[in-house]
Design brief:
- The protein has five helices and seven strands.
- By secondary structure, the chain is α+β, with helices and mostly antiparallel strands.
- The chain has a single domain (2-159), classed as Bifunctional nuclease domain (Roll), CATH 3.10.690.10.
- The chain has a seven-stranded mixed sheet with strand order 3-2-1-7-4-5-6.
- α1 runs parallel beside α3 (106-115) and α2 (58-68) crosses α3 (106-115).
- The longest helix is centred in the C-terminal third of the chain and has 13 residues, at 142-154.
- The two termini are 18 Å apart.
- Residues 134-145 and 159-164 have low confidence and may be disordered.
Length: 164
């Protein structure tokens, strides 16, 4: 498994186009692009921009329900690609200390993982299949940042190998 973090969320201004989520590996050399729908992008944007809402969202409710049941989400794992769709598991430890896997959409799992400060992993074979290789994706200055922005601007989901 490769540990990743959310590098960037690019929300499409055109509702006909999906938003793009960028997950980068911790050595900052590779990243993978995932397309997500508008509701999922807005949920992640609220979280990433630290917007405080007057009432909890579903993801907050889910985390609180786990706590109420003496369970704890441990990590998110993006485990496979099937028919060009990513598959993920939210790994939860129950009150007996056993780990259970809950199948989820990666975007939902990411919303839970980010809210609960969980590590995010991608199966090696998945990451190798879809990662943009040999790019300094986290540098925040100069031409490398501009190059990455150009990659995102030119990304078209219909040409992509994979989506969420």
């Amino acid at each position: 498994m490769v540990e990743v973090f959310v590098r960037e969320l690019r929300i499409s201004e055109n509702s006909a186009n999906p938003s793009i989520l960028v997950l980068a590996n911790n050595d900052l050399k590779k990243a993978m692009l995932l397309t997500i729908g508008a509701p999922e992008a807005m949920s992640l944007s609220i979280l990433l921009n630290m917007v405080v809402l007057p009432r909890p969202l579903f993801y907050d409710l889910f985390i609180n329900a786990l706590k109420f049941l003496d369970a704890k989400a441990m990590r998110l794992e993006i485990v496979a690609i099937k028919d060009k769709i990513f598959l993920a598991d939210l790994v939860v430890k129950n009150n007996n200390g056993e780990e259970k896997r809950l199948a989820c959409r990666p975007s939902d799992g990411l919303s839970i993982a980010l809210r609960d400060s969980l590590p995010i992993f991608v199966a090696n074979h998945v990451f190798l299949q879809v990662a943009e290789k040999d790019r300094e994706v986290v540098v925040k200055n100069g031409t490398q940042e501009e190059e990455w922005a150009n990659i995102l601007d030119k990304f078209h989901p219909e040409n992509s190998k994979d989506r969420m």
